[in-house]
Design a protein that fits this description.
Chain A: GO terms for molecular function: dihydropyrimidine dehydrogenase (NAD+) activity; iron-sulfur cluster binding; metal ion binding. Chain A: It is an enzyme of class 1 (oxidoreductase). Chain A: This is dihydrouracil dehydrogenase (NAD(+)). The complex is a heterodimer. Chain A folds into 2 domains: 308 residues, TIM Barrel; 89 residues, Alpha-Beta Plaits. Chain A has 13 helices and 18 strands. In chain A, the strands form 5 sheets. Chain A has an 8-stranded parallel barrel, surrounded by 8 helices. Chain A has a 4-stranded antiparallel sheet with strand order 5-6-12-11, with no helix packed on it. In chain A, a hairpin with a 6-residue loop joins strand 16 and strand 17. In chain A, helix 3 packs across helix 5, helix 5 runs parallel beside helix 6 and helix 8 crosses helix 10. Chain A is globular. The mean pLDDT of chain A is 96. Chain B is of the alpha/beta class. Chain B is built from 18 helices and 17 strands. In chain B, helix 5 packs across helix 8 and helix 9 runs parallel beside helix 18. Classes of the chains: A alpha/beta, B alpha/beta. At the A-B interface, helix 11 of A face helix 2 and helix 3 of B.
Chain lengths: 422, 452
Amino acid sequence: MADISANFLGIRSPNPYWLASAPPTDKKINVLRAFEAGWGGVVWKTLGSQVKNVSSRYSSVDYNGSRVMGFNNIELISDRPLDINLKEITECVRLFPDRAMVVSLMADNNRESWHELIKKVEDTGAHGLELNFGCPHGMTERGMGAAVGQDPEIAGRVVEWVMEVANIPVITKLTPNVHSVVPTGRASVLAGSHALSLINTIQSVTGVNLDTFVPNPNVGGQSTFGGYCGPAVKPIALKMLTTISQDPVTARVPISGIGGISTWKDAAEFMLLGATTVQVCTAAMRYGFRIIEDLCDGLNNWMDEKGFLTINDFIGRSVPTLTSWEELDINYHIVANINQEKCIHCGLCYISCEDGSHQAINLSYGSPYNTYSIKEEECVGCNLCKLVCPVDNCITMVEQRKGEEYVNWKEFQKRGMPLNDH
Amino acid sequence: MAVRNNRLTAEEYEQHFSDIHPPFETKDAAMVDANRCLFCYDAPCTKSCPTGINVPKFIKQITTDNLRGSAYTIFSSNIMGGGCAKVCPVEKLCEGACVYNLMEEEAIPIARLQRYATEKAIEEKWQLFERKASIGKKVAVIGAGPAGLSCAHALSREGVDVTVFEKEAKGGGLMTYGIAAYKVTPQFCCDEVDFITSLGGIEIRYGKELGKDITLDALQQQYDAVYLAFGVGLARQLYIPGEQLDGVVDAISFIYDIRNSGYPTVPVGDQVAVIGMGMTAIDAATQARRLGAKEVTLVYRRTQQEMPCTETEMNIALLDGCKIVWLAAPTEIRGENGKVTQLVCHMVKLEDDANGRRQPVITEEKIILPVDMVIKAAGQMPYEQLVHDYQLHHNNGKISVTNGISNITGVFAGGDCVNGGKEVVDAVQAGKDGAKAILQYLLDGAQAGNNF
């Protein structure tokens, strides 16, 4: 059995799965249930200035019958009294000393408020702080949350305030509602942040009700931009994570990855792109804390299969393979191959290639089953047919290099190699 | 032992003859199956439907909450898409071709989804079609069955005024009179006919039979074209001793009585033998059981491999408690005091003939079934005399046509009276083809430019 425990700046947890700062971590009853279920840690729901929440708060995007592909919320930070939160955090730390207890913070935008809040939180025995520079709704209008995270200078200043008093590790959580997460990430690291976490939610409108004409979620006939998360945002989160993993400044600190993680596979992907721990929210909100069982078990089995003894054996392993387009090998070429024995004649590869790609599939009419085959000379190796095929491994991509040597775009231009003639 | 009616309580009759097709209880349930559909291109299900319903499209439309569009997709290819969703042998048509079968996965329940979309349209009387302005032409259609109604609807949509002559008191043809009531309830049959005629431009004159109440000559004079869709009707005889005995009935009239007279009035025996293994035989056997017969035995002279009914149909009979005797050829019906008492069958061996086809060969071995009722379901015959009298070219009574056009100018034909008896869905397609040919004829050879 592999060792899946994590050590994040000395914050230890029996597994790399933390519950992200969100409704599942906003009170003792939830957090104890999560720990009992086996979660490695929690980031307690953001504490800070007094707020009041509205009803309703969530909306989602369904796709082809699958519920909650994407999830949106307009809930603010914790609306419970600070004292109660602090008391409950203290109890949770005492009851589960082996689990990570990180507390998310968003103080009013002045040094004193931050100092005061940090001191109170440290008194609970919590193991780390996460600075919420990412909340995209409600708080930004007051100059907090994403309003801080979107401006590297402000973010850097707030981190400096925090570092003046913090005695436990500080993680700065980045907002994705920016052109690039790197400037704020750098500013935070340069200001002393011990670690980064990303991504927070993405500003969104999930849809418009076609009967009432009011966008979702409906709050008494009105709506507001919410924060988008869930499986739909994972690819965006992975991209942003990679830029942080690759930047020479931000790469110095450990990263806690967030964004649509629902399965151990998602987690492994985040870790391969540089995350030391991962944070989960939507999947736990949807299915409950019990999902931790397969999150751990699946990761463990995969690590055993790959021969990884600890998570450090693969954290960041895929980062170097993500390069700029100019570095890609133009001589690398693959063509699709359809396994006729597996083919169920649905025609999805054909029509997607015909209308959406390079007309590289032959159709031979039959009754009722047509036969489809690849025109290898037309196939550009785009993967589309393989992606849409409903049968596992029916379409495979076979390597047929255009030339022996590695030639990237710059070299290609330099040599004046031929462009397409059709 | 006795053949008698009124064997059950009203509740029992209602229960036995209620719709066998479980509808989707909820929209969610329909969505689960609709979302499984892969949305195949040039889909095998569509190609396996005689009317070419764009199945992936109508299922996709269910998933996008476009139920009206879904119903239109179905009805624009098959105006009896509601009834066909209940009576089609889908396991050998659309569902049999579903690509999931090739993955060893359960096929999409196409018929059930089709019922989901069409029942709503029929129940709520959606007006999905609009007639074009009248083109000033009149067409007479003989028979308000699937072929006739399909032809009438297609013509009326194009602005033709259609009069349908129907010998029975209700429309729907075999759907109303020739199929087990638990598959298509009498109420559904009425609603379906109303749904079709709600387009306008279609008048059905009931109780008008060709050759009795009306003649082809007169119709030719009064109308611009005539479409013959009078089906088949005469039960095939067995030509064995004892067929005239009391208690021997043919399946066609037996089912007709069930559909026409009300369940309690139809007499049925205690021990019933049904001869044949086609769809009609099954419908007769199951309904005999459901009317209260104690024992129903299907007798077939070949094996399950050769049976004309589908396995699904056979299973309905088995679940109803019917027995099946394979490889038994009825050779004599015996009786006492004019009433049936025994069915004598000789056992059969199948032997390859010169063409390699397995042919039944009667052996000496015989079985005697004690019965008080024998239902013959040995097939139906075309109205050969009628066709002959009208000097229509025909093949053993089946009217010969090319693309729906008969040998008589202005006279067209389709459905069972042409093909000798196929599925409802085939008749609907024949009606569409006939309408296309008629329209071209009415427009004097001009390109109709329609896609029925």
